[in-house]
Amino acid sequence: MTLPIRHRHGGMTERGFPWRDPMSADFEELFERMNEFLGAAAATPSMTRTMPWSPPADMHETDEAYVVECELPGIRREEIDVEVSESELSISGELKEREREGVLRRRGRPTGRFEYRVMLPTNVKADDVHASLSEGVLTVTIPKAQGTKSRHIEIEG
Question: How many structural domains are present in the chain?
């Protein structure tokens, strides 16, 4: 079934539909709501962003620590806040939009507040966490509380 196209200059009865049934007003309202919804969905992320964005990050485990590598290009270390609680690592800050000359034609990089959170295992030394920023990658090293290296256990018999 094809539906009539909604034009801004008038309703269905003004576009050559000789009939007016009670459902046509409902269809017009539905068309307008769908247009608003699709318009909001097509808006650029910076136009609709009210919540912080989350930068790409990886977390891996070594024998001695958990390591989080978070991509934060263009952000200075003074603009980044790293916090460790009992069970969570939080990386947050703000990437300010830089001033440009001319008209911005396309936006692909996020700006504004960012936040990355990850749950930590219980066996970490929260007091010995180390963070470094190099070439736009923040590396946070969270040492393990005890050596958890695997070892072979002999079975007694």
Answer: 2
Q: What is the pLDDT of residues 39-82, one digit of tens each?
A: 666 655 545 456 788 999 999 999 899 999 999 998 998 999 99
119: nearest Cα among 84, 92, 70: 84
Residues 118 and 87 in one domain: yes
Domain CATH number, residue 137: 2.60.40.790
How does pLDDT run across 76-108, given as a tens digit for each residue? 989 999 999 878 999 999 988 778 788 878 877
Cα(80)–Cα(87) distance, integer angstroms: 20
CA distance 143 to 26: 61
Query: pTM score > 0.70 for this model?
Result: no
